[in-house]
Amino acid sequence: MFRTIGVAIVAVVSLPIALISQQSKTVITVDAAHPGAAISPKMFGIFFEDINFAADGGLYPERIKNRSFEFDQPLTGWHAILPISSKGTLDATKGELDVRTENPLNETNPHYLRMAAYEPGFGLWNTGFRGIGVENGAEYRFSAYVRTGGPTSIRATITDASGRELGSGTLTGFDGEWKRYETTIRTNATDPHARFNLFLDEKGSVDLDMISLFPVDTWNHRPNGLRKDLVQLLADMHPGFIRFPGGCIVEGRRLATRYRWKTTVGDIAARKTIVNRWNDEFDTRPAPDYFQSFGLGFYEYFQLAEDIGASPLPILNCGMACQFNSSELAELGETKEYIQDALDLIEFANGPVDSPWGKLRTDMGHPSPFHLTMIGVGNEQWGPHYLERYKLFAAELKAKHPEIKLVVSAGPSPSGDQFEYLWSNWRQLNADIVDEHYYMSPDWFLKNTARYDNYDRSGPKVFAGEYAAQTSGVAKTDNRNNWKTAISEAAFMTGLERNGDVVQMASYAPLLAHADAWQWTPDAIWFDNLRSYGTTDYYVQRIFASNVGTRLIPVTPHSEGGVYTSASLDETTHELIVKAVNATSDTRAAEIQFTGVSPAGKAKVTTLLSSDLNAENSFDAPKKVAPHDSTVAVNSATIPVSLAPYSVTVYRIPLR
Ligand code: AHR
């Protein structure tokens, strides 16, 4: 219980009466004389899934939709540009667009476009991902595989809705064989919804594949690399791990469309495009043009993890398609292939440069290992079939790679029969880490801050692998990312952190959403073709992940009267870190008292607050609710503080 001290607070009101109210002062006792267990450096991380156009059109900033003509409708995203006939109508006799398969670029990318101009000036245009985003003065790399014995050039333009040209570039020098050509286009205006056009200025035909337009300015300046502003938002979180590639996308609605990591590495032009499982999952938000090019594949995920200092956590299919969809199962005898995928993935990530998969990693530009230490076996699976398949995985993986921890699922709900059934089995099987999911109401989060206080310390560790407070309900389209959801998650996260000896990892989900193309809300980060912002929930994740200590410190009380606390010691920076969440509408006078250590100067105070629980960040006000830093002098082992209404505060107290 909170210790309380009566203090008199004088409130001056407009009436000529001074009201004196008694308000109790909260005493937060931080017992640094008795440090607890080590906190995992992976404690707070991120969950990436290609949902809401998070990959193509998002983190992977390809501007061209269906660049390789492999969508089910192979001309999705493409339209002919026909000259006007003498009768004033579009003249379809001036050129033709055919999707062909003879002598393709490669076997996994079998379709290509034959563009035949019967008159100069015939062309086609691409819609992009809800338009093509370009910025004034920026450069874009236009590339394509071309095969032609005819026309000697292909001209590209970028135009706005009125047809005004914003930039152009030309590919030339074709030699009759499939070959990649590229040029750079500089744009002279900003337009989030431009269009990309290709023209033949001579009669004749060309074969085209992998038509691409990419910003030159990418994260870490990698050619055709990741979108800079989005990776920056991720890097700023200081995530301890990154889980990828999902989520249900791992499972596929059918096994045929499950995520297969091996088809996502190597030559980009040979990565097999498949439908995205979120394509038409929800009637309310259909996205028939949602496919996966895998330009963002497993190599890029590992590279991203390394770039932002996060441990990689790949999740693999265990022979089960999504149990909310087909529930299709690979027979037990067929799971060999799935297990081999896991073994090969370990070799791809960690194997020597002369091993087959280690060589591929090396050839792709990364001879040193990616330091993979954990793998998820299945995503959100449940039931006896899951356990059967897990046992086969575990037998093989534990025998060959005892150094790799296996993450297993507790099913889609945070409680109930399935959850209990799985947990009792995981205890018996001595599983490493159990992934729990909770998409629940803000109230649930506030009421469950002590969820892990009584978890078995000797059993499997916990990964809070997917969670987000839902204002309306799971998969409802009117869920909001507001301060109410964020502060309830913050309160809950103090409970995760306090139980850092059993909860080893946690991640909010989903991570990214395109504002014009999403399927699922709420999400941590919203973006459109040019802009992005972190939600209130994002900033909660960010201040927690940026302020994890290395060792637990007991704090009492940790939840009372709407105030929630956690504490840790950072043994590398010699700081005591205290987090306090005031989820009430009152200012709470408090005193942080600590024992066992002496302060050494100014404490850094990071505060995230809003008096309005409905407050949301947006493209126009991206930092309406964002952290503010200040300092406070600490001269003794007692710090008087005032916790603002609806606030999250982190104190970093330097120690002698
Ligand atoms: O985060 C969205 C979805 O929620 C994930 O794909 C799935 O694992 C969960 O059901």
Descriptive account of the structure:
There is one protein chain. The chain folds into three domains: 6-38 and 551-653, Sandwich (Immunoglobulin-like), CATH 2.60.40; 46-59 and 220-545, TIM Barrel (Alpha-Beta Barrel); 78-215, Jelly Rolls. It is globular and about 85 Å long. It is α/β, with parallel strands linked by helices. An eight-stranded parallel barrel has the order 3-15-18-19-20-21-22-23, surrounded by six helices. Strands 27, 29, 30, 31, 33, 34 and 36 form a seven-stranded antiparallel sheet that branches. Strands 4, 7, 8, 10, 11 and 13 form a six-stranded antiparallel sheet that branches. The structure holds alpha-L-arabinofuranose. Alpha-L-arabinofuranose (AHR) is lined by residues 49, 51, 246-248, 379-380, 412, 466, 509-510, 520.
Write the layout of secondary structure elements.
Blueprint: E1 3-12, E2 18-31, E3 44-47, E4 78-81, E5 95-100, E6 112-117, E7 122-126, E8 132-134, E9 139-147, E10 153-159, E11 165-172, E12 179-186, E13 191-200, E14 204-215, H1 228-236, E15 241-244, E16 274-275, E17 291-292, H2 298-307, E18 311-316, H3 335-350, H4 356-363, E19 374-377, H5 384-400, E20 405-409, H6 417-429, E21 433-440, H7 442-447, E22 461-469, H8 483-498, E23 503-508, E24 512-514, E25 525-527, E26 532-534, H9 536-545, E27 551-552, E28 555-556, E29 559-560, E30 563-570, E31 575-582, E32 588-595, E33 601-609, E34 628-634, E35 638-643, E36 647-654
Parallel strand pairs: 2-32, 3-15, 3-23, 15-18, 18-19, 19-20, 20-21, 21-22, 22-23, 24-25
Antiparallel strand pairs: 1-2, 2-28, 4-7, 5-6, 6-14, 7-13, 8-13, 9-12, 9-14, 10-11, 10-13, 16-17, 25-26, 27-30, 29-30, 30-31, 31-36, 32-35, 33-34, 33-36
Helix pairs in contact: 3-4, 3-5, 8-9
The structure holds alpha-L-arabinofuranose.
